[in-house]
Amino acid sequence: MDNGPGAYTTDGCAVEVYRRLPTGEDLHIIHLVAGASATILDLGAGAGRLADPLSRLGHQVVAVDDSAEMLSCITHARTVHRRIEDLQLETRFDVVVLASHLINKPSRRMRHDMLVTAARHLAPGGRALIQWHPPAWFDSLAVGDVVDDVLGEVQVQVAITGKRARGALLDATVTYTCDATTWTHTFTARKIALRDLQLQAHAVGLTIHTPNDPAVTWLLATCS
Ligand SMILES: C[S@@+](CC[C@H](N)C(=O)[O-])C[C@H]1O[C@@H](n2cnc3c(N)ncnc32)[C@H](O)[C@@H]1O
Questions:
Q1: How far is Cα 97 from Cα 38, in angstroms, rounded to an integer?
Q2: Can you tell me the distance from the alpha carbon of 22 to that of 65, in angstroms, rounded to the nearest whole number?
Q3: Which of 12, 151, 206, 215 has its CA at 20 to 30 Å from residue 177's CA atom?
Q4: Per the confidence metrics, is the pTM higher than 0.90?
């Protein structure tokens, strides 16, 4: 199938889609945790879906991404063109955001490196917000399932195309439709037990607090 126009990131995200997606409740969650006038580091910020509105709410935001095309859409936040794993800023932040389920990427090594970056950039007393797919999300989906959603002006359809490694790896194709144009994105996500993630985070100096609700998709972490 032909994919929609515009640039794509190395992990297959269409810039045009991320320019159009609404902030949804993610913005409110981050703003609530940050409080007033916080310094915020947005890792994997994309087109600034969260970074720019957070800037407009009075936070000082640094948006990091390895896609120059994504970052070029950002108008308010400061941008840094870098891989998350390689980031070594002098500044420390009140809040570090790792959104978009990047923590569920299949590579354990990448997960470790992203957690190191989050820990390294947290100010004393700072908080990291990590958006993940909880294990219950993986368990609720079977191969062949199709989940439809509408996010602002974008229709979203997630098709589950595979489950491997005894359910630990889930393959999916997401189809985004807007203005009669369609973009697709295939990805693989790894199911991670909360305890395993907590242990991996603890090893790099982060405490991930156990959520009250196992279905919660934003995890809160502080320096250990
Ligand atoms: C799914 S998009 C989400 C963007 C944004 N967080 C949002 O919620 O709209 C993921 C973004 O993370 C970026 N990304 C993925 N892996 C990365 C890495 N290792 N280093 C830097 N950026 C990365 C991609 O380029 C892409 O812009």
A1: 12
A2: 19
A3: 215
A4: yes
